[in-house]
User: What shape does this take?
Amino acid sequence: MTSAVGVRVLRSVRELREWRATAGEVGLVPTMGALHEGHVALVERAVRESERAVASIFVNPTQFGPGEDYAAYPRSDERDLALLEAAGCAAAFVPSVEEMYPPGDDTRVVPGDIAARLEGAARPGHFTGVCTVVAKLFGMATPTRAYFGQKDFQQLRVIQTMVRGLALPVRIVPCPIVRAAGGLALSSRNAYLSAEERRGALALSRGLHVAEAEWQRGERGARRLREWVASTLAAAGLAAEYVSVADPVTLREVEGRAERAVVSLACRVGRARLIDNALVGMTLDELAAL
Ligand code: AMP
Assistant: This one.
């Protein structure tokens, strides 16, 4: 089936498999839709590096906890398809919940220690939902490469760890965070912000930027780096759910000197729960090569 905008829309696993059989080297970009320039950057890279790119659009119920925003999560399929088309994406996989979780579905992929802290601690079961849906997508699309944003840093590490642990034949490609002017990391959940909340939310990236600048100036104390972020948020009237300075490979909190680190935070702004991070002392390419 082809939509009005031309990108090939695949709604069933059967259609996806038929498309994939003749697609050559495939780059997969898993998304939950409500696409923005961050997603588009992943798709453009997949298009550049693969014979065919396919993006999935699926708001995955198993990665949302009770009381989270599954029902309210923004959905904009027609606009998303137009963006994918413009980015040169060959196909969009847009399955129903029943297609991804058919009757009899009974298996979950449960990640280990890497998923235990930070987002995993704040959102119990979240990464089991993520690993399960991503493993399914890998089984369905058998991509050569799959593209994930640094924006969800822990997710990226959890997926890398799953791929290695289960020896899945796919190359994970980490992609940098795309930000709006002013620094706010693009997120589908930014749609929840009022204009005033959006201004306040600039403190998230500002706090990370301050920590990054301090690190560049030679500050290595993990506690000091956390304090820089927390005080920048506090000055804007925001209190983080967590501010973390963790090892980028293990995601364990750094207690002493942070020679390399992912500085990350989660913070509620209005009804949006936002996350952001900055990587210091290690590059995304080094992370990709793990
Ligand atoms: P989502 O639709 O939020 O599940 O995100 C789909 C993919 O896009 C994930 O790999 C995210 O990390 C990535 N992503 C989301 N926001 C950004 C951003 N601002 N910059 C780069 N990648 C992003």
Notes: Confidence is low (pLDDT under 50) at residues 1-5.
